[in-house]
Amino acid sequence: MAIQLIVSDIDGTILDDQHRISSRLVKTLENVKARGIVFALASARPPMGMTEISKSLGVSHHPLVAYNGALIQSSALEGSELMASHCLASDDLLILLEYLEKDFKELSPQLYSHNHWYAKKWDRWTKEEADITGLTPEIADLIDLVRQGQDIHKLLIIGEATEVQAFLQVAQGLNLSSLVMGLSKENYLEVTDKVVSKEQALRDLAQHFHIDLEQTMAIGDNFNDLPMLKIAGCGVAMGNAPDEVKEGAAHVTSSHKEDGVAQALEKYVLAKM
Question: Who has the most CB within 10 Å: 60, 85, 109, 183?
Answer without folding.
Answer: 109
